[in-house]
Amino acid sequence: MDWTDSATGTAIVGRPHGRIDEASWEAFLAGITSRILVASEAGKGFVLDLADVDYMSSRGLRVLTLAKREADGHGLTLTLARPNERMREILAISRYDRIFTVADDLPAGAA
């Protein structure tokens, strides 16, 4: 799984690319966990940019649950940003849109 990262004054932004499913969930978990630690050490929030995620299986949703716990444990905010229509539907059906802050845009200064 490939990632692109950027930072703003208030957040680390991680952008995974592709599908998050049985074949890629472990790489997704490793990637999101390491980025949460970087954000925590920097005293910033973490924004997961979903713009390039085509699909997320239940394994990926489980990773989001674990990531939320990890972020909460570090006292930082985890925001899901720019989900496409399919991802919005997945987040709504699973009710993850009630657990996470879901933003239409990235924070100012993020590329």
TrEMBL record:
<feature type="domain" description="STAS">
    <location>
        <begin position="18"/>
        <end position="111"/>
    </location>
</feature>
<dbReference type="InterPro" id="IPR002645">
    <property type="entry name" value="STAS_dom"/>
</dbReference>
<dbReference type="GO" id="GO:0043856">
    <property type="term" value="F:anti-sigma factor antagonist activity"/>
</dbReference>
<dbReference type="InterPro" id="IPR036513">
    <property type="entry name" value="STAS_dom_sf"/>
</dbReference>
<dbReference type="Pfam" id="PF01740">
    <property type="entry name" value="STAS"/>
</dbReference>
<protein>
    <submittedName>
        <fullName>STAS domain-containing protein</fullName>
    </submittedName>
</protein>
